[in-house]
Every structure is written in C-alpha cells, then in structure tokens.
Design a protein that fits this description.
The protein is α/β, with parallel strands linked by helices. The protein has 10 helices and 13 strands. Helices cover 44% and strands 22% of the residues.
Length: 313
Amino acid sequence: MNISPKQLRMFLALSESLNFSKTAEQLFMTQPSLSKVIRDLEASLGLTLFERTTRSVRLTAGGANLATIARTIVGEYEAGLQRMQSSAEQAAVQLSIAAWPSLAQVVLPEVCAALEQAINAPRITLHDCANSMCIQRLLNHEVDFALASVAPSHPDLQYQELLRDRFMVLSHGKWRAQVPHRIRLEQLMHLPLITLTDASTAMRYMSAAYLNRGIEYRPKMQVEQMATVVALVKKEIGVAVLPYLGTKTIPSVNELQTSEISDGPLRSVGIVTRRLGSPTAIATTAMQEVQAVSQSLIQQNPGWILPPSPPKR
C-alpha cells in the first residue's frame, strides 16, 4: 500500500466539502484530477470512500472511519514536519569550537562578536581545553572545527595554518640584568626557567628545539596556567619562556621585561577540520572570521606573530 500524506489531505478536504468541483478549486487542480486521486486511493485501500450520484456526494461508513484515522495521521505528519524544521533551524545556528585556553581568549571573543552581528541568535559552545583534547573532540564529532597547534597526522583530519607564534623570555627584578633583549637558546639553559607543563604545545616546541641541538630541556619549574608563570616571575623565582600569543591576555606582562629568543622555535597555529563532510554555513562563517582575526594579529604584532609558512614547492 502506497498512500501519501498529500492524497490523505485531498481526501479530507473532499470529505468536509462533499463537492468535487469546490474541492478541486480549493486545491488548485482540475476536477478530473481530483477524481483520479480519490479512485487511486480507493483502489489502494480496496474500499469505497464516497457514494456518488448526479446530485450529491457523501461518505460511506468506511470513508467516515478513514476520515477519523486520516486526520490523526496527517496531524502527526505535520507535527513531525514542524519538529524537523525546528530541529533544522536550530542546527543552522549551532556552532561548537575547541581551542586551547589562551588562543580561545585571544581569537574567539572577536569571532563570536562577529557571528552575533551576522547571524540571528547563534548558539555557540566553546571548549577551551588542551591541544590534544581539542583534536580528540574533533575526531569524536563534538565540535565543528578546532583551533590548535602542531598539524595532526591523523588521516581523517586536515590542517590550515593561520599564523606562527614566536617564543619570548619574561624577566623581572634581579633577573632583568641577566637576560639581554636578544638571547639564544644555549644562553637560556643557565637561567632558572619557568615553563608550562609537558602537556602544553609550548613545552613540546621548546623541547624539540633543544633536542635538535642535542640538549635536554630541563626547566626549573613547570605549571599549567600562564598567569601562574607570570606571577612566579614577578616574585623573581625565575624567568619564563612562553609563546607570545599566550601572554596577550595577561595585563601584568607589561610590568615585565620582554626578550626575544633569536633562534627560538616558531609555534604553528591553525584550523583543524575533518576531511570528510562539508562544514555548516555558520561554521564556514566562523572560520572566515578566525582567519580575519589572525590577519589582524599578524599586522598588530609585527616580529612576534608571523604569517603562515610559505607553501612548499
């Protein structure tokens, strides 16, 4: 049995008017076309729905029973369509992004503000978490895209570099005189270094830079939050080695001496997406805004935040 909601709606319209001509006009169709729809419906059901004479049309007992059932079916179908449309409308304004905390603080507020202007009532979820967790959330389909560092090697993901971030040394008090404004990696090893933990991309980049020189990178202290690192430097516990971008949200950094690591690593920052599937319209808009903010950061912080690497030939 192959009966469509459209056929049931036509049947219900005729069951209420009991007039083929008026019903056909109401449905913007010809009377013969309506008659054929009813005949096809009766053939599918194996049931006569209307008694027709030259003067009148009326429902049969079976037709009256079907009308009661059809109203329920059509009502449930239309309610389901409304729920589907509502769900689609909600999905169109839903966005989920993962980014490590300092990047989330520097980039995503401007992105969210732009989305508020471009899209009616967007529903945005931000996951500020460690770099590895950002990638895992993307693989688990928990987020539309991730802002991360270090291009993932996973075959299901792709990476678009946005910028490169230089590392800096922060010093204060008694340590200022021992840290020149330009310093080399080898010189740093003689200082009490305070860094982020091994889970951070900053530690991974610095460890790799020293490993390439055959030197083990052994900081004096490691902590999880950049604000804590800065607070320790202000107390003259040691000097900090941090990526420049991560310090932009800490106002007290301005009280410290900033030194450039002349041969230090450059931390890559980019957008990570899944290879399969297409991003939603709101995700596409958000990624465009991320690119715009990244360009602005490069222009506003020359020498510290650099453009993406040139393409390989």
